Amino acid sequence: MDFITSATLKESDNEVFSIIEKELERQTRHLEMIASENFTSPAVMEAMGSVFTNKYAEGYPNKRYYGGCEFADQVEQLAIDRASQIFNCKFVNVQPHSGSQANGAVYAALLNAGDKILGMDLSHGGHLTHGSKPNFSGQNYQAFYYGVELDGRINYDKVMEIAKICQPKIIVCGASAYAREIDFKKFKEIADAVGAILFADIAHVAGLVAAGEHQSPFPYADVVTTTTHKTLRGPRGGMIMSNNEEIAKKINSAIFPGLQGGPLIHVIAAKAVAFKEVLDPKWKEYSKQVKANSKILAEVLIKRGYDIVSGGTDNHLVLVSFLNKPFSGKDADIALGNAGITVNKNIVPGDTRSPFITSGIRIGSPALTARGMKEKEFEIISNKICDILDSIEDKELHKKINKELEELASNFVIYNQSTY
Ligand code: DSN
Fold first, then answer.
1. How do the domains of the chain map onto residue ranges?
2. Which residues, in sequence order, are CB contacts of 196 under 8 Å at separation 6+?
3. Which residue among 36, 98, 315 is best mutated to probe the pocket of ligand 1, counting the most ligand atoms within 8 A of its Cβ?
């Protein structure tokens, strides 16, 4: 079976190889501005493509159901220890395959079917797993919502009022499309006032929290989840953290054997590599630049007459509203895409359009910052975004801008042909 063990991907499956090549080219030529995406390092990808993909390791370090786990134990413990150092917390589960799995495990560990949860409304910037109706979190539990005010910000007094009325067992804080800092301390006061568990989902801002560039959910939250691939720049996956031993034990059982089978040890190895990068002093520089770049983006868009929900940004993203424009988020997404800028259409507070059309777009700075772009490039790109939106039907202009931006992108190449 020589051909299986010795062939490269190109030799063994040129079809898949060439699709990956095209994706590499797309990621290199286009400007990636989806707020939840990022570029992980070649070292992280190397660990992810390692022999650990062959290993079953149900259980936890030193408590496995399979033999031959001595190195799986070492690498998982390393990931746990590094995450615990980054976020200053005692208990970490690095096994969730995704953020949704992590959130599902929190509910499974701490709630019974039909219990009440209070989370941020999806249409105001929350996440599907925070109680949205089409999601398991909105179907298995009785979900209540808070949102943002007309100024686009969370009003913590209002959240307190809602919590007092609905008396949830869990309050979920954290968002997918909210550009302002989340005040975990205030959420803790609300949770304490109604005897609720405080659950912080920091998937979007975890990298900033790690750098001290966003308030930490600890010591306020009882349980914290995150993805590892957004601002944290690691492999695609999830993680759960806590300082409460009883909660941590329930979470571990909810992940395995509750919801998942064998952990993805190759991904856990890659998480460990990413966490080492986060512990490097340079991480703070990166995170500061992420924020500086999104600030420029917001400033230019506002100067050019675009409406930014909440009037600016404290983090890695801006939410642009077209409620006062004659085009939709979908139109903007397509026009920007034709010019080589990848964003996502996004519901904005007060939206009347469907989630497939929307009246807004969400734009983020983490990925281009990872490519080395700074304020100067963000000012150019932000102005190009406005040029495109100002002339949303001018396909020739979009093509011209695409060429200009490809040239800009070519000066910030992150991967080479041997990266994967
Ligand atoms: N899909 C992620 C995002 O784009 O924010 C959330 O899970």
1. 48-279, 284-419
2. 118, 163, 167, 168, 169, 170, 171, 190
3. 36
